Amino acid sequence: MNRTRSTIILSILMVSGFSFLFFASCRRKSADGMIIFTQVYGKEQDKNVAEETLEYTALTRIFSIDPDKSGDSPTILTEDFYSAKSPAVSFDGTQLIFTGQKKQGDTWQIYEMNPANSKINQITSAPENCIDPAWLPGERLIFSKIPLNDTLKSGHSIFSCNVNGSDVRQITFNPDVFSSSTTLKDGRILTISKQVYPEKRDPVYMALRPDGTKAELFYKSSEGNILSGHGWETSNGRIVFIESEKSNREKGNVISINYNRPLHTRVNLSSEIEGNFNSVFPLKSGRLLVSYRKSETDRYAIYGFDPEKRSVDNAIYSNKDFDILEVIAVEAHERPKKLPSEVDKGVKTGLILCQNINVSEAQSSVNTSALSKAYKIEVIGKDSTLGVVQVEQDGSFYLKVIADTPFRIQTVDENGKVLNGPSDWIWLRPNERRGCVGCHGDPEMVPGNNIPLSVKKAPVIIPVHKSNLKEKAIELE
Amino acid sequence: MLIIVVLGLIIYFPGRKLARAHVNSKTGVEDHPLMCTSCHIPLSKNKLIVKLINSDYYSPFNLAVSKDGGRLYVVAQEGNALLVVDPENHKVLNKIKVGKYPYGVVLDEAGKIAYVSNQWSDDVSVIDLVTEKVSDTLKTGNGPAGLSLSADGKYLYVVNSFSSDISVIDLKNREEHKRFSAGNNPTGAELSPDGKTLYVTSRRALIAPYGDTLKSELTVVDESTERVIARRNIESAYLIENVAFTPTGDLAIMTMIRPKNLIPSIQVEQGWMMTYGITIIEQKEKGRVIQLLLDEPNAYYSDPYDIVITPDGKKAFISHSGVNCISVVDIDSVRTLLKESSPEILNKWSNNLGISSRYVIKRIPTGANPKGLALSPDGKLLYVAEQLEDRIAVINTVSLETINTISLGGPRRITVARQGRRLFNNSGHTFQNQFDCYTCHPDMHEDGLVYNMASKDMGRNLTNTQSLRDIRDTPPYKWNGKNQTVYKQDGIRFSTVLTRSEQFSYEDLDALTAYILTGIHYPPNLMYNPTGELTGSQLRGKEIFERTKDNSGNVIPENNRCITCHTPPYYTNLKLASVGTLAATDDSIKFDTPHLNNIFASPPYLHDGRAATLEEIWTIYGKEDKHGLANDMNKNQLNDLVEYLKSLRAPEYENIPSKIKHTSL
Amino acid sequence: MRNLIQKNYFRYLLSGVVLLCIFSMGFTPIEKSPAGLNSPKDDAKPMPVYGHWKNFTTKDGLPSDHAYCVRIDGNRVLVGTHDGLAVYENGKWTTYTTKDGLVHNGVVSIDVSELTGDVWIGTLGGLSRWSGGKFENFTQFNSGMPNDLVYCVICDGKDVWTATAGGAGQYDTYTKQWEIFTEKNAPMHEPWTYGVSAGDGKIYIAAWGGGIIEYTNKTKKFKDYTDPDGEMEIDLLPDDGPVHDITTATSWANGMLWVSTYFGLSSYDGTHWKGYFDTDSGLASNFINFVRAKGPVVFICSDKGLSSTDGKSWVTYKKNENNSDGMTIIKNFGRNDDSTVVHTTKEIPSSPAIAHNFIIGVDADKEFIWVATEKGVSRGELLK
Questions:
Q1: Rounded Cα–Cα distance for residues A151 and A130 (Å)
Q2: In the prediction, which pLDDT does C327 show?
């Protein structure tokens, strides 16, 4: 009898267990297909990073919604946060990172969340604000850090770290403000870089390797347009992002450029659409998610967007009181290449070679005869000049520069008159070796195949006025 | 039971530790999976295992279409056959055995005869297409590759890729009528539409001192005078594989690579290592030579091989064997560009990655390693020989879509070595697909260029590209001998300083290593040692090579004898040596003793390519007698020595087994 | 070459003195000489005579007046000068020098491959192949070529032969292999070779001090022809072999080998040798720099003018010492009924004459003769 009872009880327990397991398995285990978005109270329009204060201002929250269940209310994912934004989904579609402020007045830090169960881990614990995270292949991520005593000279640098927050490394070293980073399939970081010192320049997309080397211009808006927010690479080799009109920052358009030739393939996908776009995100299917409003009286809401037809179609979610700032989808997508690093922290300098300073963007176009020839370059640091260097007869120069130190270069004619420049800020990572075709050269130009005269000699040490640096630099290596 | 477990544990732990140490030493990393089979099976020399793990692929290389479009004649390079294919029914109808390592095929005007060049047997198979049998074999120069028939059909021009000349074969008496010298390593041949001139392209640049502008020769033969009327330098370009004329004959267009070997190899970004494109020659008096890239700023289209132009002259199709695609070029757009551009502007376009958007209208993906192209007679279909797919792709030239693929019936499975070969030939592992192993090691050999590898500072350490043929038993690798195994050679450092993209996965690295160490063979040395019987001069040279006393009877110190360092069968003792060639711009190192088989095919010589010929190693760069005692020799003796060196060939042709214990990778 | 001439100046002087003595003693061998000439066939074409000379110097576009060799190549004429290769085409001279890729500017020998049309250029500093407008250079340093002093180059089918200061070199354009022939592997006196020609499947090397070295292509065997008198400046026994062992050039045509020396001219029909001297023939001088046979006619370049003969007649072209005019001297040899030799001499004034009497190179075709002289290049038209 006891045995029978035991058997029955055991059977019941087993059935119950299996039933539990069965039904549990029917529950959504992953957040695949979910849409994640950030919303802000409608009257507190966020500008990502306010231009003057260089700080986050608005109170934002991250939600998720199942697009297949249009009637459902969104689920708040950052309930425990005062404010949160900039969500980014891992390449396998299982994890989310975002930046958040636990309490009002707290610093912004980077957090990791499993969107399926909202389990959250804090990644960074810096005294500074850490914002705009993005995934890197190899269990690492990047984020921008706002210095404690933020000045125009300090810049918002990009840092990388392990997913557990360890091994934090700074990878950009100029005074520009870096924000809205994503990772390209080629393994590089695509980020908005905005020069604020010594003069303000419009933001551009820069591409750089995850170790901070080989930073180069990827895309810059044409006259009258301002880049805004993340540039996302699509499954068919394009980059989509929002560009707003300079005269009307509210007027955001969905722009698509070709990864293969970003500088000259801009297509405004929303040119025929009335209204404004605030953010865009590509789905694996080729369609886009956008936050869009038809008029200024409307709130930004989530829509589907057909890039082929260039039209906004299905409304996915809207809220009459809130604007949707950012929208992304939880989908696995191709893992970017994990690029190797040439950075060697044992080396304190980097090398830069310019093939011919007289090759410039202007000269690579049509008329070259009218332009004066440059004979020297001046290397300018953040606070002072770092020296004037005579270039070789073929226009080449070869410098050894203290690593992780920003500098700009301007070309000078034989009379000392500045011909071109100064350039954008440049930095070299330890042991980085970098080549340029010319100064301010056409980014689409490749070098001619000839030996630059300058590499037949030892590199010129920068700063040149520090006579003892040469020895030091060599000794260090 | 317990005893067995204990014994097992006793064996397992130290065994595993030893295995770990062994694998680490071979791979240079500490996390390569401890799978004995990942290396020891693919690299096995056991005949049975070799047979089991490998397959015989066809590797279609070039092809021709019959006049009625009803047949494709496909050169199966590794099948040593010409495959007769019915393109409509996707069937291989016949496999006609030809010579060794066939290269190209042309059909006569009547479509009754096919001529197939056999690169490794120095002849051309003449195939009766009615009986589909080889009716004759024509002797050629060394390494016959490209073929072309004269306009009147009397002569067959055979481009001898190894001996760098052009055999003119009189088809009436079936004998070589004459031979023209050509550029360095020529392959492509095409007759102009008016039948008056033959263009022959060459792959290697002419040997010149490092720093000189690269020049690859386009040899132009006048049909009527039977003379070479021009040798045009295609500057800053090499690996000009093939050429095609527009039907009206206004343009000749050839595929090319514009390498950057003179610039320090410090990055890949901005076309810093390799760019790819087309050279166009205007066919008129004072016609310009224009070079246009097919690349884009963030995408490179590596290893362009073949080019065909549609009968209406509107489109050119170019196969990119390194990125598995076909570029479609709108020729009218090219004409417009040429018309509106001054020579200065055109010169700038040759280094511009963006200009391709003016004329490249589509990139059509293909299977692995597209090589030869052929158009159907009406120009509506493009056939693509997908070499490492054993397949022919059929592309609609109007819709520019692949509409079919024809399997040639090769093995369905992809062996480890085959996968390695695909990796070797594919640029996917280089940043933005800028180059692959094959780019600098065409034919798995070397490209004849010297690169500034800038290992520490820029402008230092010039490096002469080395052949990858049969290197299994010749470690260490690299001129500085730093890499003991191919695993290390192609590991993380390789990706850090060269490909600058994600390193090979271990699975891929296993496959690549398996291919490099087992799949790359020397061609026979038919030019200097076809039978193994040395000439008188070579025998005298052998004596000098092996001598122990100089001409005066003095004993030559052992370390200054040729044979000491260049020990057969690979003619290397696998050690580093100093031979008095260290340059001021070199790091202070010794150099790995290079292997010498088929050394005649590897100019320039020495680690930085300073010696243009074998003679120069001693006449110019051996004056101090540090690279073997040589200055006592007279000119006859030096000639004999050089002739002997040229006779050296791979052990497999000598029927002698390797005497060097092979490394396990 | 100049050094070589100076080096042996004493020998030549001595030879001249000896010959003068012999002549003054009345041993003029003129009666015997014509018997050994080519037996003129009745249907033989008349001996070509050239006139209407046009001389070219640096003023006309030549890089140098010192012309060493000349070669007609279809519609163009190639001239080797001290300062480069000069090409006359469509009435204009074009010069090619080391700046254009030529291996050395002292061009002393030129030949054109009948098969390929490639021009092979022997210089004082190496050998160039000029083909399709491009020069490919061979030197003793970069190739198996014996020596950079290339006195003579000729093409023989696919082979190119050079006569150099370091031996004769055979280059196989198919196998790209050089073979060197010197006193070590051929019956030569020393490695110095001065001339080479081809004909009838054989190669004839003018070897300094070694007479003529005959190489049979088929058998790869050598045979040498030397002067039975050794290095004596006089030919003691006439027609017993080459007139001297110091040979300057060879040329083969119409079954006859011609050999020039600084002491006279020899011919060899495969059986008999015959010697010619300025005393017993129409030769302008015994000091012969070069000889070129074209069909039945042989042209002889000497220090005192250009001579030519078809075996029956001799035609010599000379320039006056003091002006640009000169003389064409035609000598015909015949026999009387009693078999005694008679000759007739006809002198035709020419204005202008050839550029200079020191002649080093010659070539002729159906219409023109081109002559390389110490002071310019001369072109003569065939007189009808």
A1: 16
A2: 95
All domains in chain A, ordered by first residue:
35-329 (2.120.10.30), 349-476 (2.60.40.10)
What is the fold of C2-382? Methylamine Dehydrogenase; Chain H (2.130.10)
The CA angle B347-B350-B352, to the nearest 5 degrees, is 115
**Torsion of the alpha carbons at C32, C34, C37 and C43, rounded to the nearest 10:** -150
Which of A338, A356, A449, A450 has the most B C-beta neighbours within 10 Å, making it the best mutation to test the interface with B?
A449
Contact B230 C132 (CB under 8 A): yes
CB proximity C359 to B under 8 Å = no
Of C115, C141, C166, the CB nearest to B619: C141
Q: Is B182 on the interface with C (CB under 8 A)?
A: no
Q: Which two tokens stand for residue C267?
A: 């011919």
Distance from CA of A339 to the nearest CA of B (A): 5
Q: Is the pLDDT of residue A1 over 70?
A: no
Q: Is residue B548 part of a domain?
A: yes
8 Å CB contact between C170 and B639 = no
DSSP labels, B435-488: --HHHHSGGGS--S-EEE--SSSTT--EEE----TT-TTS-SBSTT--BSSHHH
B544: domain CATH number? 1.10.760.10
Residues 284-323 (A) with a CB less than 8 A from some CB of B: none
CA proximity to C370, closest of C100, C85, C73: C73
**How confident is the model at residue B532, as a pLDDT?**
94
Q: Both tokens of residue C295?
A: 């069909």
Domain count within chain B: 1
Per-chain mean pLDDT for chain C: 88
Q: In C26-106, at which residue ranges do the beta strands (DSSP E only) sit?
A: 50-56, 67-73, 76-81, 84-89, 92-96
The answer to whether residue B131 neighbours chain C at the CB level (below 8 Å) is no
C-chain CB neighbours of B617 within 8 Å are none
Sheet holding C84-89, edge to edge: C67-73, C76-81, C84-89, C92-96
Task: Output the pLDDT for position C24.
Answer: 35
Which range of residues forms the domain containing residue B554? 536-648
Residue A110 structure tokens: 């980077």
Across A219-240, average pLDDT: 93
Domain limits, chain C: 2-382
Q: Kindly determine whether residue A449 and residue B259, on different chains, have CB atoms separated by under 8 Å.
A: yes
pLDDT tens column, C194-214: 999 999 999 999 998 899 999
Beta bridge partners of A130: A145
Encoded tokens for A200: 């303000």
Q: Are B529 and B648 in contact (CB under 8 A)?
A: yes
What is the structure's pLDDT at B6? 78
| CB contact (8 A) between residue B619 and residue C142 | yes
Indicate the residue of A137, A353, A364 with minimum beta-carbon distance to B348: A364
- Cα C340 to Cα B335: distance, rounded to the nearest angstrom: 81
B362 and chain C in contact, CB less than 8 A: no
Q: Give pTM, 2 decimals.
A: 0.92
What residue in A sits closest to B505 (Cα-Cα)? A338
Cα A279 to chain centroid, rounded = 15
**Separation between Cα atoms, residue A22 and residue A10, nearest integer Å:** 18
Gap between the Cα atoms of C97 and C104, Å rounded: 7
Q: What is the mean pLDDT of residues B475-502?
A: 91
**Best mutation target, B199, B227, B539, B551, to test chain C (most C CBs within 10 A):** B227
CA-based torsion, B37, B39, B42, B46: positive or negative: negative
Q: What is the pLDDT of residues B16-30, one digit of tens each?
A: 888 888 888 888 888
Residue B447 sits at the chain C interface (C-beta within 8 Å): no
- C132 → chain B, closest CA residue: B230
CB nearest to B179's CB, from C132, C173, C182: C173
